[in-house]
Specification:
The chain is an alpha+beta fold. Helix content is 34%, strand content 31%.
């Protein structure tokens, strides 16, 4: 029974799905993400934590939570809805299963502001120049 997880009325056989073997590593560039994170309410931080665990542990993350940004150089956005707010955290994939979190912001319009995308692109470039 060590490979079986009981989730309410559902039983998940981890040996068949091999879910327990998949993990991404999540890292941060400088303190941009951390500064954003600690400015948020407890409710928002809990939702960010939950979403990052999903990103870490799920092989195919639904687009509702992680979306590739078109017309960028490999940027992705982690998508969070908490309370009445919509939040985005920019990230990219480095070697293997390493995800690097960049900056975050609260979304106030339908489109992601170009200023925020440019900032994330600049941070990604700095990351590769400084490693």
């Amino acid at each position: 029974m060590e490979h079986v997880a009981f989730l309410g009325n559902f039983v998940l056989d981890l040996t068949i799905n091999k879910l327990s073997e998949f993990k991404r590593e999540i890292g941060f560039y400088e303190n941009y993400f951390k500064d954003f994170y600690f400015k948020q309410s407890l409710l928002v931080r809990k939702k960010i934590d939950w979403t990052l665990l999903l990103l870490r542990d799920t092989r195919i993350v639904p687009e509702k939570f992680l979306k590739n940004l078109t017309n960028t150089d490999g940027l992705w956005e982690v998508r969070i809805s908490a309370g009445n707010g919509i939040f985005r955290i920019f990230c990219f994939f480095d070697k293997g299963n390493l995800v690097i979190l960049l900056s975050g912001f609260q979304k106030k319009t339908q489109k992601t502001p170009m200023k925020e995308i440019k900032k994330a692109e600049r941070l990604k470039k700095e990351y590769y120049e400084n490693r």
